[in-house]
Amino acid sequence: MADWVPKTRLGQMVLNGDITTMSDALATKLPLREPEIVDILLPDLKDEVIDLNMVQRMTDSGRRVRFAVTCIVGNGDGFIGIGRAKGKEVGPSIKKAIDNAKLNIIEIKRGCGSWQCGCGKPHSLPFEVVGTTGSVTVSLKSAPRGVSLAVGDVAKSLLTLAGVRDAWGFARGNTKTKVNYAMATFEALKMTSRMRVTEAQEKSLNIVSGPIGVTFAETDVENQEE
């Protein structure tokens, strides 16, 4: 990272120390085109491979094999990204998919939107959100504390990396298509940042945008205590 030379205005601002948080970087509305920016602002970022497919194609010169990879990244505290890549080798394809996921990173809102809870902590979603990709439609709803993530495995991976601890999820369509399922869940999470809320709603539902200072380790300890 020491020999990184930024090529964009946002990268230069991060390198100079003008921007020190990921929230500030996204608030500038400048295009995020360098994964090194995310590496600096979110050093505790984790990644996970959601889908890995081998694609074969017959050509005049013979059979060609390529790999299609879908990866997600997140810090477990308000930031999540998803990316896809194709390549001739698995390793470089995964790395490229992770870099693409970093460039697609978003900041989500969390809160305590369940009427059954009222704990006032941002452990769940503040309201119901819906995302659609292809034939798959995913609905995510607020859940009371202790319910954990009552969603499919793919959606659970995204919600965990995003920092959502309790949620109910419903999916329609061909959910066996992991890529569409993951993208639909990502679109649903993106809706949390797009929806406008009033100050009164922020206070009553304790809506927080972005990080709240909870790490993966602290989340694991709290889950064990419950």
Number of domains: 2
Radius of gyration: 19 Å
Strand count, sense and barrel status of the largest sheet are: 4 strands, antiparallel
Main β-sheet, spatial strand arrangement = 1-2-3-4
Query: Given this structure, which CATH class of the largest domain is correct?
Result: Alpha Beta
Structural class: alpha+beta
- What's the SSE pattern? HHHEEEHEEEEEHEHHEH
Strand content: 25-35%
- At CATH level 3, the topology of the largest domain is Ribosomal Protein S5, domain 2
How would you describe the shape? flat
- The helicity comes to 25-40%
Give me the CATH architecture of the largest domain, please: 2-Layer Sandwich
Number of strands: 10
**Alpha plus pi helix count:** 8
Low-confidence blocks of residues = none
Tell me, rounded to a whole number, the average pLDDT. 88
End-to-end Cα distance, whole Å, is: 40 Å
